[in-house]
Amino acid sequence: MGARLVRGGRPGHAGPVLTPSPWWFGPPALHPPAEGTPFDLVLLDRDGTLNVRVPDDYVTRPEDLELLPGAAQAVGRLTRAGCRTVLVTNQRGIARGLMDRDALVAVHARLESLLRVEGGRLDAVVVCPHGHGECGCRKPLDGLFREALRRASWADPARCVMVGDMPSDLEPAGRLGMRTERVAVDRPVGDAVTRLLGPSGH
């Protein structure tokens, strides 16, 4: 395992040498949702969409992850609606040696535990651990989205939606024919889910 860092320390190792492929955490293939589910896949950005973005830094420890208001309830609504939800996130801190794969897994374990409080579930997580120009998956490139579609071969991009707070989250999804929903401080993820599912919920 690579060296672990505390914030402010010198860069260490991310673990094994990175390949250009994204990291997939989930079943080898996603099963389709039940008939009548409003979307095939709902893709969710992480930092700034579900949890508080750390300015000029990275969430490297579970205790540093803080959900945005209403995020757990929003994911819970998606889960109850039967949607397959996939987290798609750039995590360049790994390439920089600020955290390793085990640390990332621990951060996401906390995220999932906080979502479960409101009945939310992530069906899979797909991560770009690379720096700029090292891969084809770092948003705004579309490799993370293509990996999700590869693992859900039944999914129609026209029945998929991406929810994120940055243009780089939404542009690759739009190029693939997906619906996009942008969130912001005054347009939180709960509002985006209401636009997707309607005000009555599921």
UniProtKB/TrEMBL annotation:
InterPro entries, per the entry: HAD-like_sf, HAD-SF_hydro_IIIA, HAD_sf, Heptose_bisP_phosphatase, Histidinol-phos
UniProt xrefs under Pfam families: Hydrolase (PF00702)
UniProt-annotated location(s): Cytoplasm
Record bears the keyword Hydrolase: yes
Record keywords, A-Z: Carbohydrate metabolism, Cytoplasm, Hydrolase, Metal-binding
UniProt GO cellular component terms: cytoplasm
Gene Ontology MF term list: metal ion binding; phosphatase activity
Gene Ontology process terms (BP): carbohydrate metabolic process
Coiled coil feature spans: none
Family listed: Belongs to the GmhB family.
Listed name of the protein: D,D-heptose 1,7-bisphosphate phosphatase
Lineage: Bacteria, Bacillati, Actinomycetota, Actinomycetes, Micrococcales
